[in-house]
Amino acid sequence: MTVRIATWNINSVTARLPKLLEWLESAKPDVLCLQELKCTTEAFPAEAIGELGYESAAHGTGRWNGVAVLSQIGLDDVVRDLPGQPGYLAEDAMLPVIEPRAVAATCGPVRVWSVYVPNGREVDHAHYRYKLEWLAALRDAVREDTAGARPFAVLGDYNIAPADEDVYDIAAFEGLTHVTAPERAALTALQEIGLQDVVPRPLKYDHPYTYWDYRQLAFPKNRGMRIDLTYANKPFADAVSDSYVDREARKGKGTSDHAPVVVDLDL
Fold first, then answer.
1. For the segment 45-77, what is each residue's pLDDT rounded down to a tens digit?
2. 0.90 cut: is pTM over it?
3. Which of 51, 190, 236, 238 is the S-S candidate for 232 at Cβ 3.0 to 4.6 Å?
């Protein structure tokens, strides 16, 4: 059985819906994890996506976050939010807010989490501390599924470049988030419970970047970052027959600033 699983920070599912539908028809993933929906759960375009044969489990509040899992091979045991997920306490807020950054589902023979890890903003910002707390909660939440015999993966926008070569110029990130030692230590903590980084191949150039800023011609200059990741348990990783960054989907007008990452499994 061949199963194609993908992850894509869509950067507004409403604004990118034509691009999304076009890509679903051309790439034909069995399962797609989406991040940064920027719409409420109720406003998610489930009907349009359903016309292509996909069930969907969305989780969003209409602001800058939101996640979903789309599947053509079943959608069961849906869980929204991590067990024990921390909230973010903004400076002008009285109480922390649990943001819609994680949704899980069992899709045929595979279980996945679609995650949108907090950005962190600046190293001395409260959002950075929140990011590290959120990643610790993620590790605890996925420990049991990681140890199981079923293929399992956590896919999404991690907002972390695992290694220096995962950014176009590490000197440009000195003192900034996404490359700090505590953030990378959180990825190491996921590896310590049995998850491994499934590194995709690039369709162009020599490194599989997944994100390019809209500004300063970052995409044509390939000034990118690899921050959209697949962390998989051994049964999932052992079944990988191919993985690639679909850089073509980043081209043109009206695209997301991220490209889809595709993982093919032979189960």
1. 999 999 999 999 999 999 889 999 999 999 999
2. yes
3. 236
